[in-house]
Design a protein that fits this description.
This protein has a single domain, classed as 3-Layer(aba) Sandwich (Carbamate kinase), CATH 3.40.1160.10. By secondary structure, the protein is α/β, with parallel strands linked by helices. The strands form two sheets. Strands 3-2-1-4-8-9-7 form a seven-stranded mixed beta sheet, sandwiched between helices. The protein has eight helices and nine strands. The longest helix has 23 residues. The two termini are 20 Å apart.
């Protein structure tokens, strides 16, 4: 059984690295690996605070930025974060960080760690491609929001949380275009491909590890199911 988790960089490194979170995540995943020898995880890591900081610096220095250059800055941040996560997972992760999800060999260890690939989309899309590659029927998307809302709750006080939503309705919310650093629950490019595959995505708060444990155990949880 392969479980794909798109691990938002804002959870791993909101500014500085969240050491406590990574310790607890390692313990949680280790518990599931100990309980089921057939269970394997793919962790796709985003760029988080470092990506935004370096992209913002680029925007301040250059009057007219190139999206491709901004994307590459974010991609390099994902690779730094992913290298840390790989090291934290130790002997469970025996392969190098995956940076090209379209050319992945056999899954050798218990955990695969992946990072950003190339400009034009976020690491969410890499998670969808890896789910397709290893025949996982679901991606767990962990970020700094607990659920998808009908609007941006920071700007719209009337925005309401959504428990379940179709891909058509979700894509109406997030649009179809990717902009480097775009803050959406799930990347529009990833959403388009996930919808095509009939993949289910669960959006949930990344720091709520007891909630993640419920998701992994098939229990009731707080989050949004997109299908």
């Amino acid at each position: 059984m392969v479980t794909v988790i798109s691990l938002g960089g804002s959870i791993v490194a909101p500014g500085q690295v969240d050491v406590s979170f990574l310790k607890d995540l390692r313990a949680l995943i280790g518990d599931f690996l100990d309980r089921d020898e057939k269970r394997r995880f793919i962790l796709v890591v985003g760029g988080g605070g470092p990506a935004r900081a370096w992209q913002n610096a680029y925007r301040e220095i250059v009057p007219s930025i190139k999206d491709e250059d901004a994307d590459w800055i974010g991609i390099m941040a994902t690779r730094l974060n992913a290298q840390l996560v790989k090291a934290v997972m130790g002997g469970w992760c025996t392969q190098e960080v995956i940076i090209n999800p379209s050319a992945v060999g056999p899954f050798v260890g218990r955990i695969l760690v992946a990072a950003g690939w190339k400009p034009g989309f976020s690491s969410d899309y890499d998670a969808v491609l890896l789910a397709e590659c290893f025949q996982a029927n679901m991606v767990i998307n962990l970020s700094n929001i607990e659920q998808v809302y009908t609007g941006d709750p920071r700007k719209d006080p009337s925005a309401k949380p959504i428990d379940r939503i179709s891909w058509d309705d979700f894509r109406t919310l997030v649009g179809d275009e990717w902009v480097p650093g775009k803050n959406v629950p799930f990347d529009p490019v990833a959403s388009r491909h996930a919808a095509k595959l009939g993949l289910q995505v669960i959006c949930a708060g990344g720091r709520d590890l007891p909630n993640l444990q419920k998701i992994l155990s098939g229990e009731s949880f707080l989050g949004t199911i997109i299908s």
